[in-house]
Structure formats: structure tokens, C-alpha cells
Amino acid sequence: PIEEGATVRYRQTILTIPDMTQMGAYVAIHESQVKKVRIGQKAVVRVDAEPGKILEGKVAEVAVLPDSNSSRYTPTLKVYPSTIHIAGLQDWLKPGMNAKIEIVINQLDDILYVPVQSIEVENDVHFCYVNEGSSLQRREVKTGAFNDEFIEVLSGVQQGESVALTIPKKSTLEGGVPA
User: Fold this and answer.
1) What pLDDT is attached to residue 20?
2) Residues 69, 71: Cα–Cα separation, whole Å
3) 32 φ, ψ (degrees, to nearest 5)
4) Which of 86, 87, 105, 107 is nearest to 38 (CA)?
5) How is the beta sheet containing 79-86 ordered, strand by strand?
6) 85 CB-near residues (< 8 Å, 6+ apart)
7) What is the residue-level pLDDT of the chain in tens, covering all 179 positions?
8) How many other C-beta atoms lie within 10 A of the C-beta of residue 7?
9) What is the three-class DSSP state of 179?
10) What are the CA-CA distances from residue 49 to residues 23, 46, 96, 100, 109 (Å)?
11) Rounded CA gap, 24 and 9, in Å?
């Protein structure tokens, strides 16, 4: 520790002053998603201290090896430390603030999508349940791209049809009336 009267050696760091003009965010990317992330991709940054404000950023670094500290407590979890550079200068932004980072992997325009919890997978075939009058009809669907909230539907459901937000219980389907 540096304190009054302590001996200081050559090239020893005494004080670090952060460069507030070039802010960044640290994010740990799960191993199942790291293959989608590339340096230079756009990112959306939402800081907890300023709800409603959206900052733009870009992926600056993605680690080649997983974080060894995360595997100490949960050996099956592998995350890759990454850095997002935040564009612009925000005088309210301080080091150590919590943020939510969304890395834009792909942008899909004019597509049909449903919440991921409404899709059932059985033997690598995707299904969803569509409201048909007073009952739910199980339909096979072909799916496309997805994120943690939504999944693209390529075929099997039409725009305007009501899709069950959760997979119904078997008793609901057999009786035709929700339990």
C-alpha cells in the first residue's frame, strides 16, 4: 500500500486517474453466445443510474480465453470478458456504474416473431399453440433467428393469429377447455 513514509520503487504505480473522455463497459459473454460477437459490432448501453438514456457503443475487445475467476465458483459456467467502448462524452457517467449491454448481432426488418416461451421443441421440431375458437391447436412452425426474448417464425403461423404465450398443460389440450 502507498502511504506516507512508504518506499517507492522505480516504475511503481502510485495513482491511477481514469480518462473520463473515453469510457467503456465490461461485459461477460456466455460461451453459447461468444461465437456471434465480433470486434466493431454496435452495442446499446443502458446505465442503471440514468434510466431511459440509451448510449451507443462498439465492441472493442473479446477475450480468446474464458475468465478463470468465474470458473472458480461455478466450474461449468464459462464467460468471456469483453469491453464495449461508449461513444461520446457524458458528464454524468462515472467509473463503476452498473449497465445493461445489448450487442447488435443482426437486425431483421419486417419479420413475424413470437416470444421464445411460446415455442415447444420436440425431437428437433418446433411447435406453437394457436387459438382456434375455444381451443388451442398445436402447429408445427419453422423458426429462424432468435434472441433471449423473441424467435422468428418463417412458416406455420400467420400475422394476426393469437399464439399462446406459454405451452399449455396436457389436460388443457385433451379437454379442449383451459383447466
Assistant:
1) 87
2) 6
3) -75, -15
4) 105
5) 24-30, 79-86, 55-62, 42-47, 99-103
6) 22, 23, 24, 57, 58, 60
7) 778 888 888 998 888 888 888 999 999 999 988 999 999 999 999 999 999 999 999 999 999 998 877 666 777 888 999 999 999 999 899 999 999 999 998 888 999 999 999 999 999 999 999 998 888 999 999 999 988 889 999 999 999 999 999 888 765 555 555 54
8) 5
9) coil
10) 15, 9, 11, 11, 31
11) 31
Instruction: Answer yes or no: are the C-beta atoms of 169 and 176 closer than 8 Å.
Output: no
pTM score over 0.85: no
CB 106 within 8 A of CB 41: no
C-alpha cell at 127: 411447435
Q: Would you state the pLDDT for residue 71?
A: 62
Asked if 79 and 66 count as a contact pair (C-beta separation under 8 A), the reply is yes
Closest CA to 119 of 160, 165, 156: 165
Write down the residue that cell numbers 504505480 correspond to. 13
| The three cell numbers locating residue 105 | 448481432
**Contact, 113 vs 152, CB < 8 A?**
yes
Which residues on neighbouring strands pair with residue 68, listed in sequence order? none
Please, is 55 exposed, middle or buried when counting C-beta atoms within 10 Å of its C-beta (0-12, 13-18, 19+)? Answer: buried
For cell 447488435, name the residue: 104
d(C-alpha 118, C-alpha 3), whole Å: 60
